[in-house]
Specification:
With 297 residues, this protein is α/β, with parallel strands linked by helices. The chain has 2 domains: 252 residues, Spore Coat Polysaccharide Biosynthesis Protein SpsA, Chain A (Alpha-Beta Complex), CATH 3.90.550; 39 residues, no CATH class. A hairpin with a 2-residue loop joins strand 9 and strand 10. It is globular, with a radius of gyration of 20 Å. It starts with 5 loop residues before the first strand and ends with a helix. The relative contact order is 0.15. Bound molecules: 1-O-phosphono-alpha-D-glucopyranose (G1P).
Length: 297
């Protein structure tokens, strides 16, 4: 079984759900506590053993590339001020030289098209995809868990979670087949089905391990839901030639593309951080208490 060395992180989306913040700032640079959303995806990929990250960017996203580069002026200022902790923090987050690539999706033709844009850099090997809007929260990152199942099954593996049956039209939904501990075989995939058409309530939560044959299928540029080139449709085609497995995530994914998910993620990560946990907990508790009292009145 071939090792998964590369991960594709699509960051070309416009972030219209976060206007006006995203008018000039890429949504992937919004912060959860003190780290940009995209850093969480990179940390999760590295934890899972990924060696090279391919960002699929778009216009107005240049600041993401700057973020993964050295900032000599800033480092110089920190050095003169003796702020060694901050220097170490920046050094720890700096990717190894040559381990990050950037390619552009020139037009917003869909997630499948964005992933296809990475085909030459990925080449002929299995690879991971992480949708950075979906931020993994748990003891082990979602991709590391997904990789565990890949180590058993090979093939294609998707991370899934269960959604409320009335929410299937928000996601890609998979059909559940035989158990393959700690997951199951996928029998089919549909992008954003109405609840009556959904094969289950297991939704694809934004972590994929895919075989390179997907690129040929994505290259057909067939349009699907929302008139976009959908990765789910290409995977459904690939399922006719190769097995797909699902790994239910044991942690929790926050949808940071939505306002409420983003705020929830900030609270969850803040409460998980020893340095600020206590100072944020009390005011949150007070606010919750006030809100409860208002509701009861
Ligand atoms: C994309 C995928 C969908 C998946 C979802 C997870 O949809 O197409 O299959 O369930 O991400 O967030 P989008 O959120 O881009 O509409």
């Amino acid at each position: 079984m071939k090792k998964v060395r590369k991960a594709v992180i699509p960051v070309a989306g416009l972030g219209t759900r976060f206007l006006p913040a995203t008018k000039a700032l890429p949504k992937e640079m919004l912060t959860i506590v003190d780290k940009p959303v995209v850093q969480y995806a990179v940390d999760e990929a590295l934890e899972a053993g990924i060696e090279h990250i391919v960002f699929v960017t778009g216009r107005n996203k240049a600041v993401i590339e700057d973020y993964f580069d050295l900032q000599p002026e800033l480092v110089g200022t920190l050095e003169r001020a003796g702020k060694t902790k901050q220097i170490e923090l920046l050094e720890d987050l700096m990717p190894v030289a040559g381990s990050v690539s950037f390619t552009r999706q020139q037009a917003p033709l869909g997630l499948g098209h964005a992933v296809w844009c990475a085909r030459d850099i990925v080449g002929d090997e299995p690879f991971a995809v992480l949708l950075p809007d979906m931020v993994s929260f748990g003891k082990t990152g979602c991709l590391a868990e997904t990789m565990e199942l890949y180590g058993v099954t090979g093939g294609n593996v998707l991370a899934v979670e269960q959604c409320h049956p009335s929410d299937t039209a928000k996601y890609g939904i998979v059909g559940r087949g035989a158990d393959v501990v700690p997951g199951f075989e996928i029998t089919g995939m549909v992008e954003k089905p109405a609840p009556a058409e959904a094969p289950s309530n297991y939704y694809i939560n934004g972590r994929y391990i895919l075989q390179p044959e997907i690129f040929e299928l994505l290259g057909r540029h067939e349009r699907g839901a929302g008139n976009e080139i959908q990765i789910t449709d290409a995977m459904e085609h690939l399922l006719k030639q190769q097995p797909f497995y699902a790994r239910p995530f044991t942690g929790r994914m926050f949808d940071c593309g939505s306002k409420s998910g983003f705020i929830e993620a900030n609270v969850a990560f803040a409460l998980a951080r020893e340095d600020i946990r206590d100072s944020v907990f009390e005011p949150i508790r007070e606010m919750v208490g006030l809100r409860r009292a208002e509701q009861a009145a």
